From TrEMBL:
Name of the protein this chain belongs to: Peptidase C1A papain C-terminal domain-containing protein
Entry-linked PROSITE patterns: THIOL_PROTEASE_ASN
Family, per entry: Belongs to the peptidase C1 family.
Origin species: Mytilus galloprovincialis
SMART domains: Pept_C1
GO molecular function, one term: cysteine-type peptidase activity
Leader sequence segment: none
Superkingdom of source: Eukaryota
InterPro entries: Papain-like_cys_pep_sf, Pept_asp_AS, Peptidase_C1A, Peptidase_C1A_C, Peptidase_C1A_papain-like
Amino acid sequence: MTIADLRRMMLELQPKDLPTLSLEMRSSQSAVATVGPIAVGVDVKRSFQLYRSGIFDDPTCSSVTYNHGVLVVGYGTENGQEYWLVKNSWSAFWGMDGYIKMSRNKNNQCAIATDALYPLV
């Protein structure tokens, strides 16, 4: 394999080829269940940093801009409130063993549905 071959392969693997989806749509639930983790951006405020348990609900988060990347790994409903199960990168000492339950279908709270990507393997 030549360097030119490697460069061509790298160009073929650019993020432009990754499917995008809206996490506010039902299809995203199917993607999480069948494809696996979905990379998303979220708007992190102090309340997010201090999260310990329960469903995170902070209406002061932006619904447009984000400043941190996480993985949506699941979803559910608890006491009638829908949530995304999200894996953070801040170690198992943060949140619920490194995870957070974020409000789902709630006006794109914390910009979680702004940009969502997953790979096709």
